[in-house]
Amino acid sequence: MTWTLTDIKNKTQKKRDELDVQIGLQLRRRREKLSFSQTDLGKILNISYQQIQKYEKGDNKIPAGRLFQFAKLLKVTPDYFFEGVVLEKNSVQEKKYL
User: Fold this and answer.
1) Cα-trace Rg, the chain
2) Which one, 26, 62, 75, 78, has least CB within 10 Å?
3) CA 10, CA 7: separation in Å to the nearest integer?
4) DSSP string over 44-89
5) pTM for this prediction
6) How far apart are CA 72 and CA 65, in angstroms?
């Protein structure tokens, strides 16, 4: 099989999960409200600012422990990051996890 550049590009591009994007958006809003830069936040948590960028864009999933660290540092409860998230009844994902 011969691979084209388009095939390779499509295969390597990750689709962002809507939930990850929503959580990242909430992280960014709170960080900016408290006047933290991505670099500031990264230094405190001993991770790179690039990793903070990936979390905020929804490119990378935030592990539960890390989410708890963000919540503590940003003075919110972990559920803050899920505000505005709507789960559709009888969705494919719901069936998958039940």
Assistant:
1) 16
2) 75
3) 5
4) HHTS-HHHHHHHHHTSSPPPHHHHHHHHHHTTS-GGGGGTT--PPT
5) 0.75
6) 11
Distance CA 31, CA 17 (A): 21
CA distance 83 to 85: 6
Give 43-73 pLDDT, tens digit per residue.
Answer: 999 999 999 999 999 999 999 999 999 999 9
For the chain, the average pLDDT equals: 85
- Give burial (CB, 10 Å; 0-12/13-18/19+) of 52: buried
DSSP state of 3: P
Residue 49 is encoded by which pair of tokens? 């600012």
